[in-house]
# Entry
Amino acid sequence: MCHPFRLSSWPISRSKALARFSPFLVALLLALSARAQGDRQIVFERTSKYHYIQVYDEDGLRTLAFNGSSESRMSLADPFTGHFEYTEYFQMPFLWNPNIKRVLMAGLGGGSAQRAFAHYFTNATVDTVEIDPVVVDVAKEYFQVIESPSSRVHIDDARQFLRRATNTYDVIIMDAYATTRYGSSLPPHLTTKEFFLIANSRLTANGTLAYNVIGRMSGSGDKLVGALYRTMKEVFPQVYLFPSTETPNVVFIATKSPEHFTWEHAQQEAQKLIRSGLAPLPAFSIRAKQFEDRPPASAAQSIILTDDFAPIESLMEDSK
# Structure
């Protein structure tokens, strides 16, 4: 008997292997795979300049996928739920600044973080930079992303946008990924010491940088986490980590403030925010408990990423 295969159930290494073929063949294989899945409804698919993009509904969730890799998720019944856990760590910068007013996000995807900020933090203005105009159209059409005076989307490269920016931000959130032969990968020019110097110059005096990385604190994927940590420490006086419990994601928080936060201090600040109503996210206290103020074990042997040498693909390959 023939059984339709589910791409989502393939091992990660096999899904990544698809990216070694031509973009056309990747799109064809993924489209045939998805159509073979009786419980998955494809509501959009298109190959853009940057990705083979799919939007599908399954088990009450709407998912955005790039080249077969799930990038964003939303509950069809409640758009403020169903998202990936790591996006909630983008609200951790409030631990260092409870009065955040200006936010820049690099990477739109399905707009999970943008919806959350618009819903929970109505006093904050959010600029989003997304390089793929098709992703912007998809987010608006299928993921309830709405542009407004307080939530604007700019089609641009994040580094170029920051270089040209004349204003400063309380928070810069990095969640931009590209598709390479190894699958989803960080764009190298957004990982280097030179990039972090640019980002630092666009932050306010007590500003923070939040950065999502696919990886782990130890074991598989720790080399990339270690390299990003060591590189950020070249620019920012303090760097903290929030490892996700559900997926292999680590969210970095780099601060301009030299004050060192301990785990106990972070929990005290979290409770203050919750009591004052400034942290309305239901899981805010739980997410704050993932706070790590120690470097990953791999950092001591990690390289510093620069514009001249940033082997992100090989570091991503080590995470397989």
